[in-house]
Amino acid sequence: MISIPRLLTCALSPAAAIRGQPIGVPTESEDSDRACDRILGMSCAFVSDAPRIVSIATAVPSFRVSQAQVKEICQTHFQNLPGIDRLIEVLDHSEVKFRHFCFPPDYYLAPRSFQQFNQDFLQQGVALATEALQRVLGRDSVASIDQVIYVTTTGLMTPSLEAHLFNYAGLRPDVRRSPLFGIGCAGGVNALAHARDFALCYPDSRTLILAVELCGQTFQKADTSVKNLIAASLFGDGVAAVLVDGAKRAFSGPRIFSARSELIRGSLDVMGWDVTDKGLELILSPRVHCYVRDHLPGIVNRFLDENALALSDIDYCIFHPGGPRILRAYQEGFGVSPEALRFSRHTLRCYGNISSASALFVLKDVIERGRPAEGEIGLIAAMGPGFAAELALAEF
Question: From CA 386, how far away is CA 16, in angstroms rounded?
Fold first, then answer.
């Protein structure tokens, strides 16, 4: 763990705060002009101005299904898939024990239109989002929220869900709205970065992040491919809610002191949706874990270097639990032990992959069960359609 001086203000940059170097002094490897460019490019948010995560909550639907139940259903539903007796074992190796869904299993096996799936998404999504909102606010008023960042990749609607929530939950009429769609599993981390940017501009503001993912609504009954079997073995439903306050408002909670997004060229076909007449059909490359293993470590190392950190300085790996192959890709790419990913594994085991909400579920688990010591650092990371990485650094 690194030691971070508590009395430093914007007189030190994030990098300088760690190195103990005054912000106006060039490093040994740069001249004064480059030092000025570096200084101007840095947010001085590491110590005094960094927005804070003041509350985080989750909500899951009532239907809890075991992986054994799903395996039995898939054995019948995918019975005509060549090699099903061997392929069905993917459920045994998924590391998923339970998932939650908005409806009982029979619902997903009955013929339904894309329109009906979306209508049910809206109804169930608003209910779960309202539950998560009440939990994340506690005794605080809903009127304290200045901005709502709504994230999803599993339901289509206009107006977006936060507008519907306005009519149910009593959000202020002048609340800022920032709906995000299409970032997939990386959406929750991307939303943290947007909330951080807003709080840096408006340090007395409060942002609500709502990641609403009902992955069951995208299940394609007629698709009996291997990729759909894999999807059926992993994805679940859930909502994560996060409150991010600016520095003038918050005095406790993890600081979000840096964030980064990075796209990988030529990778549009790695992951996403094929929008068909019947709904959202999964695009999932069998090499997605290779992209994670081969690209994410370099992206992370550049990000950490910008913040004068190394992987050895990271106390908590808060990584999106995409599935067992993704977890192994993290281990191989970063050279970390399974123990370093214990919180990601716990989320995968209890909830499955909940797309954009998953990383936020992991973050909540780290805060509640990990109980990080003051000054410890968490790296929040996820990859999603694009193919892209979304990263954030939090100081507890």
Answer: 33
